[in-house]
Design brief:
Layout: E1 12-13, H1 19-28, H2 34-44, H3 59-68, E2 69-70, E3 75-81, E4 88-93, E5 99-107, E6 110-115, E7 118-120, E8 135-138, H4 141-155, E9 159-164, H5 174-184, E10 197-201, H6 205-214, E11 219-223, H7 229-235, H8 244-258, E12 262-268, H9 276-286, E13 291-297, H10 311-323, E14 328-330, H11 344-350
Parallel strand pairs: 1-2, 6-9, 9-10, 10-11, 11-12, 12-13, 13-14
Antiparallel strand pairs: 3-4, 4-5, 5-6, 7-8
Helix pairs in contact: 1-2, 4-5, 6-8, 9-10
Length: 351
């Protein structure tokens, strides 16, 4: 039996339109162009939940919008707030009853939100909870935006940094990701600087090259997690399609075209990829590339038998990288008491 149609299949997803597209759509409804600017502000600055809240829009126009459009608004199904820090993990319900996760992290520099780009994931990385049940569907630009909007409304504070590193592979949802980046950095919307936006990828090389051609000022974070093709194959099925050396070459191209330093995400798995020889091999692999390595003590998940590297192994790995001339940091653990690994909260709800 086919999947039931969602509201997005039968009405215009108005929140996913940029200002030019919205103006054209408003004109098609027989309205004046200035209405587009008003509607855009209600959606992307005031974050209203219904057309009825748009108080400077005529009732006639509101009825046209209700008849022809969907206004994407996520429902907060659950929120877990850490007792250890100010981290909060949100579970949002989509219009078709799918669930997605987002995380708010509080730093000295402001509020950072980590959002999902897909409901589920098909990449199959062996240590990740997000991928255990496969991909359900891509998120629309509006659904990606809404995670930020709803969290901002919940905390009553501005979100200044965005990380597209939750459930899903962003470059597997390339066109919607690109539109999201355009909307979130629009000066007439939330106006988050592209330099404050990070997009993660497990290494879909063709789309990395496409993204480089856009010459955006975002940070690209590449989930590497291994120092050799042999080890990466065991951890990440994407390595079957794109060899690790091809991936590193795409990273070099990305830096050459954008001038933006690459971040390599490296999840440390006890006894698997955290030995001294792994650090030496990793340093040789990325030598000469303008990059830094973000070491992540992995959050264990019950469905896999991987364990977190012990603290000494993490420190030794970092020291070895630095000794080889590679800049490395250890990711600060946040929200460990609230299902820290991506996908854990969502998966509990759908099983």
């Amino acid at each position: 039996m086919g999947q039931a149609l969602s509201i997005h299949d039968i009405k215009q997803d108005i929140k996913s339109l940029n200002q030019e597209e919205l103006t054209e759509f408003v004109l098609s409804l027989g309205e004046k162009p200035f209405r587009a600017k008003q509607i855009y502000q209600w959606m992307h600055v005031r974050h209203v939940s219904s057309f009825d809240e748009m108080t400077n829009i005529s009732n006639v126009c509101k009825e046209k919008l209700k008849d022809s459009c969907s206004l994407t608004v996520l429902q907060q199904a659950m929120v877990q707030r850490s007792q250890l820090d100010e981290t909060a993990k949100y579970l949002f319900k989509l219009s078709d009853d799918n669930m997605i996760e987002s995380v708010r992290m509080k730093y000295r520099h402001g509020n950072s939100v980590c959002i999902s780009s897909q409901a589920g994931c098909r990449m199959g990385c062996r240590f990740c909870a997000s991928t255990l049940d496969g991909l359900v569907r891509n998120l629309t630009p509006a659904e990606m935006l809404e995670q930020i909007y709803r969290i901002q409304e919940d905390i009553g504070e501005r979100v200044s940094h965005v990380v597209v590193m939750g459930t899903g592979e962003p470059l597997d949802n390339y066109d919607h990701l690109l539109k999201f980046l355009q909307l979130i950095s629009d000066e007439n919307g939330l106006n988050i600087s592209q330099r404050n936006i990070t997009v993660s990828t497990c290494g879909i090389v063709p789309n990395m090259r496409r993204l480089a051609e856009e010459r955006l000022q975002i940070t690209l974070a590449v989930s590497l997690h291994a120092s050799s093709q042999e080890k990466r194959l065991k951890l990440m099925p994407v390595a079957k399609r794109y060899d690790i050396h091809e991936l590193i070459e795409a990273c070099r191209e990305y830096f050459d075209k954008t001038g933006r330093r690459i971040t390599f995400e490296y999840s440390l798995l006890g006894g698997v990829n955290d030995k001294t020889e792994d650090a030496v091999q990793l340093a040789a692999l990325i030598k000469g590339l303008n990059c830094h390595v973000n070491l992540i003590p992995v959050n264990p998940i019950e469905e896999r038998d991987y364990v977190q590297s012990n603290p000494q192994a993490v420190m030794n790995f970092k020291a070895k990288l630095e000794g080889c001339g590679i800049t490395a940091t250890i990711r600060r653990e946040m929200g460990r008491d609230i299902d820290g690994a991506c996908g854990q909260l969502r998966r509990r709800q759908i099983l």
